[in-house]
Amino acid sequence: PFPGWTLPGVFTAGGAQKLVKTERVLPGKKILLAGTGPLQLVLAYQILKAGGKIEAILEASDISINWLKGLKGIWGNWDFLKEGWEYLRNIQKADVPLLRSHMILEAHGDGQVEEAVIAKVDKNWRPRPGTARQMPVDTICLGYGLVSTTELALLAECDHTYDLSLGGFIPVRNENLETTLPGIYALGDGAGVAGSKVAIEEGLIAGVSVARSLGYTTDADAKNHKRRVQKRLAKINRFRKVLDKMSMPRAGLFELAKDDTIVCRCEEITLKEIKDAMADGGTHTKDIKRMTRVGMGPCEGRMCGPALIEMMRCQPNAHSDALECLPPRPSIKPVA
Q1: What three-state secondary structure class fits 277?
Q2: 10-residue stretch averages of pLDDT, the chain, 336 residues long
Q3: Contact, 314 vs 153, CB < 8 A?
Q4: Is residue 115 packed enough to be buried (19+ CB in 10 Å), middle (13-18) or exposed (0-12)?
Q5: Most Cβ neighbours (<10 Å): which of 21, 101, 263, 298?
Q6: Are 104 and 9 in contact (CB under 8 A)?
Q7: Residue 287 CB contacts under 8 Å (≥ 6 apart), including other chains
Q8: Distances in Å between the alpha carbon of 41 and those of 14, 45, 286, 330?
């Protein structure tokens, strides 16, 4: 009934955030947050502010080590640090456990979520033996990475490259943020998930580039304007790379699926069906789509596409050139 809803009591972090912030409804009474990256802290802050109870926050990465290594990238981005510290301070005041290097392995329940199985994980997000334990919860919010919104660029047939740290397939761009098709620019989360501040600065670069191409400004003025913007953008990107390195999904996440795990929720395609299709000669994602109908549902592969690529790479008979995105169809987004 709500955006991001998957199973009774299971939400994506973005869906839960919309539920709390926009709909002003708490997703449950005993909430578990599991995933990686700063969105978890934002969601936890909003849930606590709305009066909700969080049993624990599971961060897959060891963020203490990553922050230390990323000090150079963090330096100067004090507004981001201040915002993050505010979230952490409120989480600590509410006595919510923040478990680093932890992941959810399974969710159990009769008709709805009643229990989560969690475990400590290594640097590749693989569960450490003997660390699994049960946690009674009625709601699970999952946020293991974000996916770039590239449907328009894909339909325009711009060249794309695969970068898991930026959300999968992203359009190839030059220094003016123009794609491989002249006159088409890509920026913001449509060209790699990087946040609103990056999107604003990239918008300024693309805007002045368009203005110059139409003759509304000189080369010198456009160059000076872009230099100032690129300086600000470089500082933000230093910080963003720290978050990218920390949050990029690791192999252990995609190895959690079992044969009966549903990969494509729209068409209810299981991992076993995908493995059988690969064994039957399916070497590329488009082959698997034709053979199993994975990615043919209302979401058009937005949810299962990125997972499908990484799960195929985990299989022993996977091909190195199997990385292909599932192409979207008009009208870009499902409509009623």
Answers
A1: helix
A2: 53 84 87 92 93 95 67 71 85 94 93 94 95 96 88 92 87 95 94 89 96 94 94 86 83 91 91 93 88 89 85 75 76 71
A3: no
A4: middle
A5: 263
A6: no
A7: 277, 281
A8: 12, 6, 36, 35
Question: In whole angstroms, what is the distance from residue 241 CA to residue 235 CA?
Answer: 10
How far the first Cα of the chain sits from its last, in Å, is: 14
Rg of the chain taking only CA atoms, in angstroms? 21
Burial bucket for residue 176 (CB in 10 Å: 0-12, 13-18, 19+) = middle
Rounded to whole angstroms, what are the CA distances from 189 to 101, 149, 198, 214?
27, 6, 9, 25
For residues 27 and 66, the answer to whether their CB atoms sit within 8 Å is no
Q: Which tokens is 219 given?
A: 């080369």
DSSP H stretches of helix in the chain:
13-21, 39-49, 63-69, 71-74, 78-93, 151-155, 196-213, 219-247, 251-254, 271-279, 285-292, 304-314
Determine contact, residues 8/112, Cβ cutoff 8 Å. yes
Residue 36 in tokens: 């990686």
Q: Using CA atoms, how far apart are residues 195 and 174, in angstroms rounded to an integer? A: 20
Distance CA 169, CA 327 (A): 11
- On the question of a cis peptide bond just before residue 247, with omega within 30 degrees of 0, the verdict is no
